[in-house]
Amino acid sequence: MIDCHPLALTLRSRVVDAGVVALFALVLMWAALWNGFPLIFPDSATYFGIAFEHQYAVDRSSFYGLILKPILSTMPVMAGLWVGILAQCCAIAVVVMIAARRLIPSWSCARFLPLFALLAITTSIAWHAGQYMPDAFTGVTVLLAWLAATRDPSDDGAPALWLAASVSALMHYTHIPLLLAVSFVTIIFSPAATRRLHSLLRRGGAGLVSVGAAAAILVGANGMLLGRWTLAPMAPAFLFARLTEDGLTKPWLDENCGTIAPHDLCAIRHDLADNSQVLLWNGGSPYANRIWHAPSDSERWRWVGMLATTNEGAIASRPLIFFENSLRGAFRQFISFQALDDECPHSCWSLDTGPANALANYAPEALKFYRGSRQVNGTLPRTMIRSITTPVAIAAMLLVPLLFWQAVKRRDRLVQSLLAALTVALIANAAVAGAMSDVHDRYQSRLVWLVPLTVALIVLRWRQTLSRSRISLPGLK
Prior knowledge:
This protein is mostly helical.
């Protein structure tokens, strides 16, 4: 029998684990590979502009596009597009695997692979992992926050997890409140709650530093590049569209035009569409022309300031209606989580705007492959896919309260912290999206795949614990 050196065994194990994670990443790519092209959303055009050119977005975080830039701007077009998706899937696979090993540390990485393959087919994870959108990292942000907050900051790997959580939070403005909420709840429910107070304070401090660092970077970048020292410079524009659809802005303008309401906005109030999406994106909208196609940056920000003033006035004059609408929107968003977006193909074909226009400008070699994809041609079996992923998500969500009750009975603080963090993340995500934007399946779909994953891992964790307890009983082998 050959004696292996411990270092050789460690290296061999790490190589095997890396191979398993790489295989999981390839499994996550199945939806994009089947599509024949990386999955796209109309907003992907903005990120292509950032990655291929020297652009910085005014209406969203640009860091997702900046992270893609070293790949997309240096490699041959089609190779770069696929390598970018592979890198994205690898990042997701690594975080999911770390979370799985945290719950079931005795399992090897290879042992999780069948479960992950099943989840890649039966949940929405592959449809986000294979798509050029920062939504791919929403669930990753939640997992990283939970992983970091369940460790003491001095533990091995804890600083790296907090750093990774901050980087993931940079991808989208909505990730900042998610990181904050998940970190706080995890700390409250984690095993640290049974220890001394200073341990909780250390974890809380680390969480605040992580959230603060991500927020400060976004504010600093917006300030230096846009002249707007704020987290989300265009938030007033999106909120105004939502309030207009809810019927709050026009009554306030009617009541206050000629006094405190912005004069220029009053002049076009009767031309503003009631539908928020038409108001925001219709090329002929007087609103869109003054916000997205303003003749100068100073003019754009002048209008954004007027919108902010109107938002404040409309909410202050009818706070109960605003609160009721926000709750209704949050609830509707919470239960809207079907896989696959409903924007393509009708918003993805035209060369005038959107992804096709971006590819035609920055990567014309990819255009024929893009237009040949199932997504753009409308041949993805959306109904069949949703008939699988939606029931799986619903069943898993219904099990969460039961599992939490069982976790309390078992005094399993780690599982309690994960279920609490997941629940708060789902609620916070629905609240932010439901109050600030239209209800859209993709907002909750980008996160809901965590629920079946969590349920499956918890069941396997407890099953293993039960098996061990049986083996340890006298007379049992």
